């Protein structure tokens, strides 16, 4: 195998849900002050960075479609996330979000798309653009939609008990055919499992 062929081999990655996994679950983040990193999230992401594993945020943001906040605020929130992570020496390699909803107030976002989780569109787009291998990757999130997203693209999954996770584990999970590969208290424990498995 040549060096060029080696470089073109798709890489495993970790796909992270945003709200309730990286930052405090606040419902819709309709003001910049509502974005707060969860304790230990930056350190967990830094561990993945140090292990040279790409970290990609994949997030449903139907608040845009519902008219709860403008796209400028979402950009500002992501800039704040990047800045707060950088202060701890961590970074994400990509941010992908779905702004759509079938009942959106804003016409440009009103559609049934292929990117709204649990559909795999965000992960497939990131995989194509960043040369990643979903079937060798892990999806981490606090909702069963994240677990289903992983299943829909052949990835492994971790449910974190932060955000909606504890409630989803108790009330949603027992009735689901698709189960996570691992359940973790938070992103730190999820990353520990990923690095050891």
Task: Please give a structural write-up.
The chain has 197 residues and is of the alpha/beta class. It has one domain: Rossmann fold (3-Layer(aba) Sandwich). It is built from eight helices and six strands, in the order H-E-H-E-H-H-E-H-E-H-E-H-E-H. A six-stranded parallel β-sheet has the order 3-2-1-4-5-6, with helices on both faces. The radius of gyration is 16 Å and the shape is globular.
Write the layout of secondary structure elements.
Elements: H1 3-7, E1 14-16, H2 41-50, E2 55-60, H3 62-65, H4 71-87, E3 94-98, H5 121-130, E4 138-141, H6 144-152, E5 156-160, H7 165-172, E6 182-184, H8 187-196
Parallel strand pairs: 1-2, 1-4, 2-3, 4-5, 5-6
> Going by CATH, what is the homologous superfamily?
HAD superfamily/HAD-like
Q: Tell me the distance between the termini.
A: 27 Å
Major sheet strand order: 3-2-1-4-5-6
Q: Please tell me the overall pLDDT.
A: 95
Largest sheet: 6 strands, parallel
If classified by CATH, what would the architecture be?
3-Layer(aba) Sandwich
Keywords:
197 residues; alpha/beta; Rossmann fold; 6-stranded parallel beta sheet; 8 helices; 6 strands; disordered N terminus
What would you say about this model in short?
The chain has 197 residues and is an alpha/beta fold. Helix content is 37%, strand content 13%.
